[in-house]
Amino acid sequence: MKDYCFAREEAEKTKATIAQFPADGLKSEKGRKAYREMSRSLDIHIRAAGLMATKLRLTNQSRYTPQAAATASRNTLKGLKPWEL
Hints:
Blueprint: H1 2-19, H2 29-55, H3 60-63, H4 66-74
Helix pairs in contact: 1-2
């Protein structure tokens, strides 16, 4: 769980750094390289967090067999979701 929290925190920090990256920074090769490295780091941390969440059974994917997931999907309410109103 500690590693999962670390991966999530690092992903959030990297997202914030990428969001603050200056647009004119992409004009130089050094800036593009730095942006690429930050993007790779973000990808690694997001993948690691997702894998750990699945292994820790924190995701719906880990809680359902394919048949149970299909049944649950069929039994959900039809129509607009609350966030679509």
